[in-house]
Amino acid sequence: MRAIETNSLTKRYDTTTAVDAVDLSISQGTVYGFLGPNGAGKTTTMRMLTGLTVPTSGSASVAGASITDRDRLRPHIGYLPEEPPLYEQVTAYEQLEYVAGLRDLPHNETQSRIDDLLTRLDLSPSDASTRIADYSKGMRQKVAYVQAILHDPDVVFLDEPTSGLDPRAARTIRELIRELTDSGTTVFLSTHILPVVEEVADTIGILYGGELVAEDSPEQLTKRAETGEARTLEEVFLEITSTDPAEQHSPEAVDG
Amino acid sequence: MGAGLLFPSLAFAGFVYIFADAIRDAGSFALPPFARGTVAVIWLFGVFVATQRVASARPRIDAEPLILTTVSARTVVGGLFVAETLRVLAYLGLPTLVLTVGSAYLFGSIASILVIPMAAILLAVTAVVVGMVLGYAVALLVATSPFVARHKTVLGGVAAIAAMAVYLLVTLPQVGGIDQAALAWVPIGWLADLAVIGTSVQGSLIRATSIVFGSVAIVVLGGVLVEREATRLWFTDPVSGHEETTLESTGSGTEETTDWLADSIRPLVLPSKIPRPMRRVAQWSVLKTRRDPRRLNFLLLPVVMLGSVFISSGIQSGSLWSLLGPACAAVLPWVAGATFAMNPFGDEGAVLPVTLLSLPGSTYVRGLMIPGIVFGLTLVTLTTGITMFAGSYGPVTVYGIVGVGLLSTLVAVATAPAVGMWFPRFSAISIGQSREVIPPRLFTTGIHFISTTVPAGFLALLVINPELARAVVAGVVGYLPAILLQLIASGDGGLLISGAMWFGDLGTRVQGIDIDLFRRTAGGLLLLGGILVAVLSYQLAVRRFERYSPPM
Description:
The complex is a heterodimer of chains A (256) and B (552).
Chain A: E1 4-13, E2 16-26, E3 31-35, H1 42-49, E4 57-62, E5 65-66, H2 70-73, E6 77-80, H3 92-102, H4 107-120, H5 125-128, H6 137-149, E7 155-159, H7 167-182, E8 186-190, H8 194-200, E9 203-208, E10 211-216, H9 218-222, H10 233-240, H11 251-254
Parallel strand pairs in A: 3-8, 3-9, 6-7, 7-8
Antiparallel strand pairs in A: 1-2, 1-4, 4-5, 9-10
Chain B: H1 2-18, H2 20-25, E1 29-30, H3 33-57, H4 64-68, H5 73-107, H6 111-144, H7 146-150, H8 152-171, H9 173-176, H10 191-195, E2 201-202, H11 205-234, H12 260-264, H13 276-291, H14 297-317, H15 320-341, H16 344-348, H17 352-356, H18 361-390, H19 395-422, H20 442-464, H21 466-489, H22 495-512, H23 515-547
Parallel strand pairs in B: 1-2
């Protein structure tokens, strides 16, 4: 069973096609780096895969559950949206206990897991007892990350998980992502920080104008198909998503 | 507030038109102290609103870093002052126009065209500038004093209640023994002397002149003060008003753990028998309300409006307690339903996607209903029971009205999530209030208020006075349409008159129904209708949650 499988997944808003017939097939226990310029349709794709947005056409399943069946999908997924989904007037402990309670996680084990994860992300019990309104951007991001993985989901969707984090915290997140995949969790990672993707992703997909224009392993993607000359992921990304037709590489050539 | 100004303005216009000759014939008379006092009351109300808006809703400015590094604080203060003044003038516009045209029509006074708008503008600018001075002073206190910052909600609530009490004392002389005339000494009331120049009402020219210069002085001095306060506020790092939660355990072991959410809502307690996901939704809802009680401001308007009407008519008729019990049974259920679940999606805010992905709709909706049921039923039973006994009703009537309250609470609690979820509000900016607080839509509040209080009020009437209830139904479904149709037909006959006669007959037939039969039938229909609406609302809310796609 594939962790994520989509078949011509499409989303249209009136006359605009946000996501155009995207086909994905992502193996269990891997990291899928999802790249694309602003407005390419990455967030819309993630929202469809998490069941938050209904596709216009096409189908998809996540951990074997259809994305249109929220009841079946819910236990299998975790989602960290770009804006940390936190309520400002509560503490991190209250926020995390709330989300754990919604999923009916065992109370004692959850508290211990919360403490472990927060400690790994350098958030002290004192920090966690302070209202989120007083947090820095990075602290919010850490709490939101813990919230997304608290229930040990089969597939976790991370939208810019290292945004606003200092280098140490960003490194910890990358390590945690690797630990997740080691334990069999599939990570669908969307970020603009290309070195992060290059480091942790097993496969990279590039979305441009709603279409999946390239998909391969980081090594293959950065190796020019014709000459075998190595380039950085940034160069590949800029070439594929260039608005200048002369600069633009044909997706077929890049797609390994 | 708009409606509150529209209807008196229209009523005044009608009054002037109908009694124009009588007023002209009355000749010249001295400006009564009551008029000056009324102007003073309006001004004080304006100051209160402006203070409240500045202190609690908008002490800081949009895009603050950009604005404060682009223009001077004086420019910002000036802009805010102009915006607030225009806002007040938008409300004062219609009454001012009606007064001006009415005065010019009644007294043929050209001067009124100048002095009445001038008085209105001076009233607005002075109220705004004084309100801003007080508002920024309060905001500065909140920003610099940890004690005030920590207890700002309680202190604000006490101040609002005190202001409301003063307002009631002045507007309901039966309660406080003082009326508007007692405030005639407040100099701002001299604007009335300015407004009557050129009419047959004799004011004081000295007072009129004094208040013009006085107002200018208030605006200039107030402007300087506001600029200083605002500058200090905007360039001060505010103290934190949040207390750290006490940790009773480290949570590192499994033998001793803390239930943070349960601790945070104490002394309120929800039964531990409630399944955990549902209990968490309920605790979350209570906690959010507790941490940010300003989100309940929307409850105040209908409660204060109805409350003042009930208290006023109760005092005038000498039967305050007789009215209070049934009023509690009709209105408190709405409060119980609306307090925790009137805008569930908007209240979730950024957390909404996580909530949608974490639990089934049925669990969420039940969780939302729990605080209303647990705390609402208790509140309604106690308050209604006590006020009914105080109203000297017999035990059967007391039980009947308490039963009405309980049924209405269940209906209100079940319908609130459905109404709130179908018409969520996510933005606070559009209503011009605080940027942090997202109240429900006025539409949802109105729909829920009417659909719960009207049937509850009618049920209460059925219990207390079934004859009056029958007369109300006969009037609404029969006599009133008959009268309207007759007015429209203007005696021309034909279909409209036939319709009017049919409605008239219907009213008579309703009035002829045996009172016991009417009571049983109407009561039974409302009971069944209430249960049906509650069940359907619950299902609707669950379906809405399951299919909801939050905005990006």
